[in-house]
Design brief:
By secondary structure, this protein is an alpha/beta fold. The chain has two domains: about 1-40, no CATH class; about 45-140. The chain is built from six helices and five strands. The protein has a five-stranded mixed beta sheet. The longest helix is centred in the first third of the chain and has 16 residues, at about 1-15. The radius of gyration is 23 Å and the shape is elongated. The mean pLDDT is about 90.
Length: about 140
C-alpha cells in the first residue's frame, strides 16, 4: 500500500512539475519566436544598433581592434550593454571599452584602436577617415 501511494505521489509530482510550454516549442512558429528574442535582447536599441554592429563587422577583419562610442558613456547607464553586445556581434575582433566600470575614460584604448565605431554620437578626429556610415553611426579608421 505504501509503495503504491509513493509511486502515485511521485508520478503526480513529476507530471505536475513538467513545463508544458517547453513541450509546445516544436509546434510554435519559430520565425516569430526568433524575431521576438532578437528584439527583446536589444529593447529600445533595436533595430538600429544590431544593424550598425553587423555593418561594422562587415567592414572590419578578424583581429582588428575597435573602440566603441555610444550615447550612454556610463558603465551602468548603458555602456556595459553596448560593449557586451558589440563583443557578441564583433566576435573575432578586439572590442576596446572607452569607459571603465567606475566610469573613468580609457583614452589609451581610443589611441590604440584601429577603428572607432561611433553610434548616435559625434566624434571628430583629424587622424581618421570615414570607412562606412549608416544606421545612425559611423566607422572611422586610420
Amino acid at each position: 500500500m505504501r509503495r503504491t501511494a509513493a509511486i502515485v505521489l511521485f508520478s503526480a509530482i513529476v507530471i505536475l512539475s513538467f513545463d508544458f510550454t517547453v513541450a509546445r516549442i516544436p509546434f510554435v512558429n519559430r520565425d516569430r519566436l526568433r524575431a521576438l528574442f532578437e528584439r527583446q535582447a536589444d529593447t529600445s536599441w533595436y533595430p538600429e544598433y544590431p544593424a550598425f554592429l553587423e555593418e561594422v563587422r562587415a567592414h572590419t577583419q578578424p583581429g582588428d581592434s575597435i573602440a566603441l562610442f555610444v550615447p550612454a558613456m556610463h558603465w551602468d547607464g548603458g555602456y556595459s550593454y553596448a560593449y557586451y553586445r558589440a563583443s557578441y556581434f564583433l566576435s573575432g575582433r578586439e572590442v576596446l571599452p572607452l569607459v571603465t566600470r567606475q566610469d573613468k575614460p580609457v583614452l589609451d584604448n581610443f589611441k590604440r584602436a584601429k577603428f572607432i565605431a561611433v553610434w548616435q554620437k559625434r566624434v571628430s578626429d583629424d587622424t581618421r577617415h570615414v570607412v562606412w556610415s549608416g544606421h545612425h553611426g559611423v566607422l572611422l579608421g586610420h
